[in-house]
Amino acid sequence: MLILEVLFYSFVTVVVIQVLYYAVLFGSFAFSKSDSKPVKSTPVSVIICAKNEAENIKNFLPTILEQDYPVFEIVLINDSSHDDTLDIFEDFKSRHDNIKIVNVKNIEAFWGNKKYALSLGIKAAKYDHLLFTDADCKPLSNKWITQMSANFSDQSTIVLGYGAYNKIKNSLLNKIIRFETLITATQYFSFAKIGIPYMGVGRNLAYHRDEFFKSNGFIKHMKIRSGDDDLFINEVANSKNTSISTTRESFTTSIPKMSLKDWFKQKRRHVSTAKHYKVKHQFLLALFYITQILFWTLGISLAITTYLWPFVAGLIIIRFITQYLSLGFSAKKLNELDTILLLPFLEITLIILQFSIFITNKISKPNYWK
Q1: Where are the alpha helices (DSSP H) in 126-276?
Q2: Of all helices (H) and strands (E), which one includes residue 93?
Q3: Where would a tag sit more exposed on the chain, N or C end, judged by fewer CB atoms within 10 A?
């Protein structure tokens, strides 16, 4: 009985922590209003770094060129591609005078390092306000630049946007990918809302060039091949200089991985940077994940024993109601409501996959960039 009593009170503690995360921390984003900012006409440099992305560039670059914005340039960085990427760049440049090409060749010190290529592109940019996306990303509207740049101000020099993934019917993997994206976005938007921003995604991210030069670019983590987005934001973002853009016109969408193996490799690269976050961010993220695991393991264990089952059932219901409300409102904002229908299953699946990624990364280092 003593063991069951310890398990019960541990479960109570876990549920309280989980409810605080969903209701208070994530609720700061989920239950807030998405305010549209006044439209501005600040000149913007859109920066796209590509490595062997010829087909994606042909398909998605026109959506950037069609943006309804008065003054912007597109900086196309060819990161030592061995396909037709550079040729495609030059073809577009011959037809559009607001395109600038930065052709990066490998050097021994920075071989295969995206941060080196991005640094050259940032230095070559004509304007100080920089907007980043990937070669396979498509803005959801021709107001993408307008909506993202509207969040810049004298104080706000960093803008975190949402990078969604295309929806694929009848694909369980697609649901898992988009649910993970929803959870990640809810976390980094919420942390930014309460004044402790910790990351952004390179699929949709903007900042003033001064932030880059004040921190000496990526120099502090140049040897870490990944993290040109999240590690940089983790280093320079604070409660005063960071804003978020959650209007749907500001979203981008990307091509998701089509196999679990490819997605697993991609997430290995992403997860490998988390150990370099500030300690407070590592603690808060780890506490959420650990209490997620304990909620399921302790909850199932207590349910099997039927120990104080009315109280255990009540705690489970409270946690699920809070989770559904918080993630439901977030999903509505981010246009991911269909993932909520499978929430318990997707949560358990994601916990298992994340644990597998953590163990795999402990055994071997992931590969980076392309």
Answers
A1: 144-149, 172-193, 209-214, 230-236, 260-271
A2: helix 85-95
A3: N
